[in-house]
Write a structure and sequence with these properties.
The protein is of the alpha+beta class. About 30% of the residues lie in helices and about 25% in strands. It contains 8 helices and 18 strands. The strands form 3 sheets. Strands 2, 3, 4, 10, 11, 12, 13, 14, 15, 16 and 17 form an 11-stranded mixed beta sheet that branches. It has a 5-stranded mixed beta sheet with strand order 5-6-7-8-9, with helices on both faces. Strands 1-18 form a two-stranded antiparallel sheet. A hairpin with a 5-residue loop joins strand 15 and strand 16. The longest helix is centred in the last third of the chain and has 31 residues. It is globular, with a radius of gyration of 24 Å. The chain starts with a helix and ends with a helix.
Length: about 400
């Protein structure tokens, strides 16, 4: 009987907590207005690669875990050293550890070090990589998030303008719908590939709706002993090996993502050999309304992709590919498939006004926010009055 009372109190407390969280997430949380986004437009073409130095490509990974959420500290310490040595053995210039809700400072002695953590701890995987934060943000919503919930979280993470926000694994557990990606704003990058899959459809949705968001590709490694998870997807960043230069390169698109074909690789030695055999990108030039990509060796295909993910040109078995930027094209991005099946994802060239990129901005809706808050406040008052009157009637009897 005593045990039943304890269970009853626990369940009652859980129900009350869930009710409070529901009110906070769906009733009290800020509401936004989302104007209809517009495709990129303008007479000029923004080329993120216009100032690249072929000698400054740096291999980087920003998404790897030394431990799972609330993992054991001793095991985590061993994993951190292993991550560092393992990625160095694959020739990485920048090695980052992005544990959940923890900033890992193991690499802070290096000039290229940027603090990073993975934000988000609910079931639905609405997660972000937060680069260069001053502290960890613990705000999150536990239930399926609305568009306003997701925008509010992004805005809280991006309060510091020096922070760079990346949406990661957007389709895991249906974290971000096409409608979400159409309207969300105030973030910098999207993870286009990780060790499991690629997210090109999500990325084309973002670009087709006029959001100047750039590419990141990372392992999202949880098991360091799994050859399929380590050095599967990585960034090539054209930068000096110092923090500010790296952040600027990522936020302006001076990088590209690589998804290594690991299907036939069985050992780390085979993987190192495969990395050494990959072609280098020698030049990405935009001249006379034509985009030209040159590589150090012949590749299987060079694809040029525009609005809504439409392939507008394909070149096969060449080391150079060109594509005309027509008046109908709002952006053009390039995908390259190497002879071994490895994929390169280049950042897009996009239309703009020639001065600055135009960023979509959802607007805080004060009227809707306070209308919802007032309605829930009135509902709580009404519940209190009803319960008080019932108690009074019971006492009189």
């Amino acid at each position: 009987m005593k045990l039943l009372k304890i269970v009853y109190k626990f369940l009652a407390g859980l129900c009350i907590l869930s009710f409070i969280l529901l009110i906070l997430q769906y009733g009290v949380n800020a509401k936004y207005s989302f104007p209809e986004p517009q495709p990129f437009n303008g007479k000029f073409i923004y080329n993120p690669y216009r100032t690249i130095d072929p000698g400054k490509w740096r291999k980087a990974n920003y998404h790897a875990h030394a431990r799972k959420f609330l993992g054991q500290s001793e095991k985590a310490k061993r994993s951190i050293s292993f991550i560092d040595s393992l990625y160095r053995s694959f020739g990485y210039d920048i090695i980052s550890i992005s544990d959940y809700q923890v900033i890992n400072r193991f690499e802070s002695k290096n000039e290229w070090y940027i603090p990073v953590y993975e934000h988000g701890y609910q079931y639905y995987k609405t997660h972000h990589l937060v680069l260069n934060p001053k502290k960890v943000c613990w705000l999150d919503f536990p239930f399926r998030q609305t568009l306003s919930n997701k925008q509010f979280i992004i805005d809280q993470l991006h309060k510091d303008a020096a922070t760079l926000i990346t949406i990661v694994h957007p389709i895991y557990r249906k974290a971000y719908s096409s409608n979400d990606l159409k309207y969300l704003g105030n973030y910098n990058c999207m993870e286009i590939a990780n060790h499991e899959r690629q997210f090109t459809t999500s990325y084309d949705t973002i670009l087709s709706n006029g959001h100047p968001v750039f590419i990141m590709a990372d392992d999202d490694c949880h098991d360091l002993t799994n050859i399929k998870e380590v050095t599967n997807s990585f960034n090539e960043i054209n930068t000096d090996l110092v923090r500010d230069s790296i952040l600027k390169a990522l936020s302006t698109g001076r990088s590209y993502g690589v998804k290594l074909n690991t299907r036939t690789l069985k050992t780390n030695e085979e993987k190192r050999a495969a990395l050494l055999n990959l072609p280098e990108i020698n030049a990405i030039i935009f001249q006379n309304d034509t985009l030209t990509v040159s590589l150090s060796q012949t590749v299987k295909t060079i694809k040029f992709i525009s609005q809504h993910g439409k392939e507008i040109r394909r070149i096969t078995d060449q080391s150079k590919g060109s594509c005309h930027f027509s008046k109908e094209d709002t952006y053009i991005r390039t995908e390259i498939e190497c002879n071994d099946g490895t994929l390169y994802f280049l950042n897009p060239l996009i239309r703009y006004d020639g001065v600055r990129l135009s960023y979509y901005a959802p607007v805080f809706n004060a009227f809707a926010t306070w209308a919802w808050r007032s309605a829930f406040f009135c509902l709580l008052i009404l519940i209190f009055i009803i319960r008080y009157r019932k108690r009074c009637i019971t006492v009189k009897k």
